[in-house]
Amino acid sequence: MSQTDAELDALDRLRRLTRRLNLEVATWRLKLALKGGYDPSLPRIPSGEPGGGRWAGGSDGSTGSKPAGAE
User: Fold this and answer.
1) Is the pTM of this model over 0.70?
2) Distance between CA 16 and CA 60 in Å, rounded?
3) E-assigned strands of the chain?
4) Helices and strands (DSSP H and E) totals, the chain
5) What are phi and psi of 44, to 5 degrees?
């Protein structure tokens, strides 16, 4: 079954929209990563644990919401 010109145009529009949305998502991820000096190598509490997703070990040795040494 052959696709009509209208169907091909619709697919092309969807491809362009998908590329634009992927670029926008990548831009937001980069902005979030740069915000607050995010460093993916800093230790975090695993999800599923109490306090999961937070930075592991604050400057006072306790579990906090900031990485060790952050001010």
Assistant:
1) no
2) 50
3) none
4) 1, 0
5) -130, 155
